[in-house]
Specification:
The chain is an alpha/beta fold. It is built from 11 helices and 17 strands.
């Protein structure tokens, strides 16, 4: 909403969580105008990421309430603040939890996607001044989540956390590029740099793990091994490029790493851990090939347990890589993913079928 004095506060609906683990309630809220270096976005499509659930249950810091969750979304710019010349009302955009200022040493380097000027943090407010742009019907402040807060009809996001996308992208598919699909595809394409003919093992075939499989397929991997205790993931994985399936519950006393080493004649070139368990991270590392095997960690350890690996195997040439957002630089790489979809290289439609089945 804008008049001659500029953007005005907007009253709209949002799903608000007022305490850890409590059901979200749809309430009327007020969304303030964007300040300098900010844009206000009308949310068209949003989805639920497991990170939303993790912080929804969290009672201690940074589990701050009341809060508006949601960070995987697509929307249209409604209004812009000062110094937001990159955007204009009507732009099709996706907000991202990871920012890119494009000016700091990390943003300018191809070796990192972690902006060092505006570092990633789970803040209760906006990244520049820490204040909120949300209040409830009684005027009480509501906290942000990961700089996005997409579980509302409108939100305000810093310009470093907003990416323009081709308006030809279907909203429900552009939404997936905001987090999960980009994380998995990027981990294979951007971070691991999977080569044609290589072998890949993926531990956990959830949405992110299946996105890794999709990325490995696009990169030309010849053997994509999915590891999951859910037998239904066998047939599902095939749709995303998985060529072999292992259910650890069906192996008896045989370690999954031994099976993978035998299947790949020495170990997988690339192993991806997509669950968030230290034991599985170790299994992935043991499944990787001596000499050049890489283990990429995408899952956040859900119990806070440390990762313990053999220093001898490190000396034998294996490596472990941490992955934040799959190594994706949002403003640079998300438009590439959108173009790959429009060119029928990246098959995002099957993720929608996965989520609705």
């Amino acid at each position: 909403m804008e008049n001659q004095q500029g953007p005005q506060p907007i009253r709209c609906k949002a799903a608000v969580c007022r305490a850890a683990g409590e059901p979200l309630a749809v309430e009327e809220i007020v969304v303030d105008p964007p300040k300098a270096y900010e844009v206000r976005i009308r949310i068209v499509c949003t989805s639920l990421c497991h990170s939303d659930l993790t912080f929804w249950r969290m009672k201690d810091f940074p589990g701050i309430f009341p809060r508006i969750f949601g960070h995987e979304a697509f929307g249209v710019v409604e209004s812009v603040g000062e110094h937001a010349e990159e955007f204009a009302a009507g732009d099709a955009v996706v907000p991202t939890f990871l920012g890119q200022c494009s000016e700091c040493v990390d943003c300018r380097s191809p070796r990192s996607n972690m902006c060092s000027r505006y570092r990633f943090a789970v803040r209760p407010g906006m990244p520049r001044d820490g204040t909120t742009r949300f209040s409830d019907a009684q005027g009480r402040p509501l906290h942000h989540f990961l700089g996005v807060s997409s579980f509302g009809e409108y939100t305000v996001v810093d310009v470093n956390h907003v990416v323009k996308v081709n308006p030809a992208m279907p909203p429900s598919l552009a939404c997936l590029l905001s987090c999960g699909a980009s994380t998995g595809v990027g981990a294979a394409w951007k971070l691991a740099k999977v080569e044609p003919g290589s072998s890949v093992a993926i531990f956990g075939l959830g949405a992110v793990g299946l996105a890794v499989a999709e990325g490995a397929r696009i990169c030309g991997a010849s053997k994509i091994i999915g590891v999951d205790i859910n037998p239904d993931k066998h047939e599902l994985g095939k749709k995303f490029g998985v060529t072999h399936f292992i259910n650890p519950k069906e192996l008896g006393e045989k370690p999954v790493s031994q099976v993978i080493v035998e299947m790949t004649d020495g170990g997988a070139d690339y192993c991806f851990e997509c669950i968030g368990l230290a034991a599985l991270m170790n299994d992935a590392f043991l499944s990787s090939r001596e000499g050049w095997g890489k283990t990429i960690i995408l899952g956040v350890e859900m119990h806070g347990a440390p990762l313990s690996i053999s220093s001898l195997q490190i000396l034998h040439g294996k490596s472990v890589i941490g992955s934040m957002f799959g190594g994706v630089k949002p403003k640079q790489d998300i438009p590439i993913f959108a173009d790959k979809y429009l060119n029928k290289e990246l098959e995002l439609d099957k993720f929608i079928r996965l989520l609705t089945c």
